[in-house]
Specification:
Blueprint: H1 2-8, H2 22-27, H3 38-48, H4 52-70, H5 75-91, H6 94-111, H7 117-132, H8 136-154, H9 159-174, H10 178-195, H11 201-216, H12 220-238, H13 243-258, H14 262-279, H15 285-300, H16 304-322, H17 327-342, H18 346-352
Length: 364
């Protein structure tokens, strides 16, 4: 159970808590933001700034214009459809994102062919969503399709190919295959530094995820060194309140937590929580990850009433946003059941047991 609790707040590395943000890597794949015309360009700007509701508003305006002028299956129309899917991903609305990506994929396969770069953009995006939903085998299958075609069409060192390499590493990381994940991250990092430079967002993304591996392996000083590099770069390029910067803030908090520096961890989690709440909303998966992590720290400090309150908040939010069967929701559920049992509230613990995948003791 303790390993489950700790896992819930590891360095944010991608598809939800514990996984960086492949959305950043995915976002710049060919065609994702090539929405010509000022409504589309304005929507893309709001998306980059994390103003997702405004982005959706302007993408909807761009989509209506394209459908009227070009038709529903025109490549430019389908680009806007794909961009809508990306915004829903950034909002944590994964099922809605899949619906839009499926529409884009069907249209692009018909209009452009299964191996066209824009089609592969959507394949990549589908893999991203499966990863965020915890469907890791399916994610690897879709990333594998994208990678094979990228290498064939663009070469092994092209940024689009490297994005897929990076996202494969994220999935291996989420599966707990840390050695394999590190190999794929190192391949991506070498390529990004060569092609894009050491301070490019994609490069810093990969540095962040390598730091997460070092943390999982207990190499905390090394992890802190890599995270400080990421934080400085993100603050300079994106600002202190940008979601990508906040991911690194969250990860710094998790690192201090894993070293037993609980007060320092809470300080950094509070900064991340305030930023996420403002930028993404109180029910976004990243916000709820921070809530869950704060509950765990309160538990370690033996502030049990406070820990129960925060676990309950995380559980309610995750069940609403992700569903009861999502791994992150199940993790919070196990943490809450364990704490109820520890403080003698067995009736509350027993009432939650049927919601687990299997009703075994969370201490196992």
């Amino acid at each position: 159970m303790r390993s489950q609790a700790a896992q819930s707040g590891r360095l944010l590395a991608g598809a939800g808590p514990g996984c960086f943000r492949p959305a950043r890597a995915s976002a710049l794949r060919l065609g994702h933001r090539r929405t010509e015309g000022w409504p589309g360009r304005l929507a893309a700007l709001f998306d980059r700034q994390g103003q997702y509701e405004k982005a959706l508003e302007w993408y909807e305006r761009a989509l209506a214009g394209r459908e009227k002028a070009l038709g529903i299956d025109h490549p430019h129309t389908l680009t806007t459809v794909n961009c809508m899917g990306l915004v829903f991903v950034n909002q944590g609305q994964y099922q809605k994102a899949l619906e839009w990506y499926e529409r884009a994929l069907a249209g692009r396969e018909k209009a452009l062919g299964v191996d066209h770069p824009h089609t592969l953009t959507t394949v990549h995006s589908m893999a991203l969503v499966f990863g965020k939903q915890g469907q890791y085998a399916k994610a690897l299958e879709w990333y594998g399709r994208a990678l094979a075609e990228d290498e064939k069409a663009l070469g092994v060192d092209h940024p689009h190919t490297l994005n897929t390499v990076h996202c494969m590493a994220v999935i291996f990381n989420n599966q707990g295959q840390y050695g394999r994940a590190l190999e794929w991250y190192e391949r991506a990092l070498a390529g990004y530094e060569k092609a894009l430079g050491v301070d490019h967002p994609h490069t810093l993304t990969t540095v962040h995820n390598i730091a997460s591996i070092f943390c999982r392996q207990g190499q905390y000083e090394k992890a802190l060194e890599w995270l400080e590099r990421v934080l400085a770069g993100n603050e300079k390029a994106l600002g202190i309140d940008h979601p990508h910067t906040l991911h690194t803030v969250h990860s710094m908090a998790s690192l201090f937590r894993d070293q037993g520096q609980y007060e320092k961890a809470l300080e950094w989690y509070e900064r991340a929580l305030a930023g996420y709440g403002k930028a993404l909303g109180v029910d976004h998966p990243y916000t709820l990850s921070t809530v869950n992590c704060m509950a765990f720290v309160f538990e370690k400090q033996e502030q049990y009433e406070k820990a129960l309150e925060w676990y309950e908040r995380a559980l309610a939010g995750r069940e609403k946003a992700l569903g009861i069967d999502h791994p992150d929701t199940q993790n919070t559920l196990r943490c809450l059941i364990n704490l109820y049992q520890s403080v003698g509230q067995t009736e509350q613990a027993q009432s939650l047991q049927p919601c687990l995948y299997a009703p075994e003791s969370p201490h196992n």
